[in-house]
Amino acid sequence: MSETGFKCPKCGQAESFTADSVELYNARVYVTKDGWDYCSEGADACFCDLTHMKCDECGHDAHYSDFIDEEDE
Predict the structure, then answer these.
(1) DSSP code of 20?
(2) Where are the domains of the chain?
């Protein structure tokens, strides 16, 4: 079982991934000149339905559900 809840189906690493399209719920979002940051006040983050993830180790790129660690379900 990985700490992140994800495991690359290609190389098996479970530590470092890059994802696009993450939604924030119940959070205040602050936009600054340096980019963005948010203040977590009971905030939850989840993946959008069409989110893709990329394994930072081997570069495997697929829909985020392909990375779900089955032991976490």
Answers:
(1) S
(2) 17-72
